[in-house]
Amino acid sequence: MSHPRPHAFPTRLMQALLACSLLLGNAAQAAEKLAHVTILATGGTIAGSGATSTTTVGYTAATVGVDRLIQAVPELAKVAQVKGEQVFQIASENMSNEHWLTLAKRVNTLLAQPDVDGIVITHGTDTLEETAYFLDLVVKSRKPVVVVGAMRPGTALSADGPINLYNAVLLAASQEAIGKGVLVALNDQIHAARDVTKTNTSTLDSFKTPELGMLGYIQGNKPYFYHLSARQHTVDTEFDISQLNILPQVDIVYGYANMGPAALNAVVAAGAKGVIHAGVGDGSLASKVVPALSAARKQGVLIVRASRVGQGIVARNGEANDDELDFVAADTLNPQKARILLMLALTRTTDSKEIQRIFYRY
Ligand code: DGL
């Protein structure tokens, strides 16, 4: 019976061990080359859970921690070196100005670090567009910041959270996303923070940028951009929140047939420094409300004419004489985003003409 030559056995084992170590070494080197992405978790449905696999409404948002979100998508390790931080754990209807300031300061601190290449923020979808726009105006880095959510909890059949998170991390790790402003990525689509909005209470394709258009797609593990934001953002804005602990109180008053001044008078009495009038049509003002708006303006409250319609330009001096009333026209910002821009504008100036220029710049 022939015995393997003694010198042969160690050779084959050594060859196998060498091959394994080379493979492991290559894998470690490949991983080392991946971008470093920090996931800041805030709650929402992407961190939600339901009683059954078919519970897509009536679930509980903000129950799953960031570590479990990351563990649920092991493929993340193929596209980035990921770390997670639980900044908040809330349903996003409870997002506040204070949450925004805390989150923005954490984002800016992390992005100033050389070992952070991009950031993903997991967020409830109800106010996702608002947080994204606030960050778009105050983040002071060209590094990618991607805000992501989900329309179904992770416990549901065909949950969208895991793939949305994977795509968001892939986008935040990409060269293509650098310098594009804060991005919103859901449903394989890439949107600009300024113009994206939630258009459906529950469907997977809820986030859209109607008329002005989304920026691109994520397909086959790669981002594709076809448009760029035309308005200034991130490092090109004048807004600095680093020393701010509070934002000016700005409220929104919704326009409708037969409206009166009661809601407006209430927010002014409560101390609003600015009011967004979400008017009907092209920001039209009911004649019953104009005296109260004018009185508020004379008290020093900044008035911005926006529209409840959702698309199109609210033209200065169109449905109202803004020059005479000393009001500001919101341009294309929807009421909730006009509120964010007016809050930040009021940290810089109370001059209505300068604020109008700000609304044409961002
Ligand atoms: N309460 C909602 C929120 O946290 C759930 C909706 C969602 O996250 O998709 O925004």
Characterise this structure.
With about 350 residues, the protein is α/β, with parallel strands linked by helices. It folds into two domains: about 35-235, 3-Layer(aba) Sandwich (Rossmann fold); about 250-360, Rossmann fold (3-Layer(aba) Sandwich), CATH 3.40.50.40. It contains eleven helices and 14 strands. The protein has helices at about 10-35, 65-70, 75-80, 95-110, 130-140, 160-170, 260-270, 290-300, 320-325, 335-345, 350-360; strands at about 35-45, 80-90, 120, 145-150, 185, 190, 195-200, 205-210, 215-220, 220-225, 250-255, 275-280, 300-305, 330. The strands form three sheets. An eight-stranded mixed β-sheet has the order 2-1-3-4-5-6-9-10, sandwiched between helices. The protein has a four-stranded parallel β-sheet with strand order 11-12-13-14, sandwiched between helices. Strands 7-8 form a two-stranded antiparallel ribbon. The longest helix has 26 residues, at about 10-35. It binds D-glutamic acid. D-glutamic acid binds near residues 44, 91, 125, 150 and 151.
CATH topology of the largest domain: Rossmann fold
CATH architecture of the largest domain: 3-Layer(aba) Sandwich
Number of helices: 11
| Most strands sheet | 8 strands, mixed
Could you give the count of β-strands?
14
Give the helices and strands as they follow along the chain: HEHHEHEHEHEEEEEEEHEHEHEHH
Determine the fraction of residues in helical runs and give it as a percent range.
25-40%
Quaternary organization: single chain
CATH superfamily grouping of the largest domain: L-asparaginase, N-terminal domain
Query: Which CATH first-tier class of the largest domain would you pick?
Result: Alpha Beta
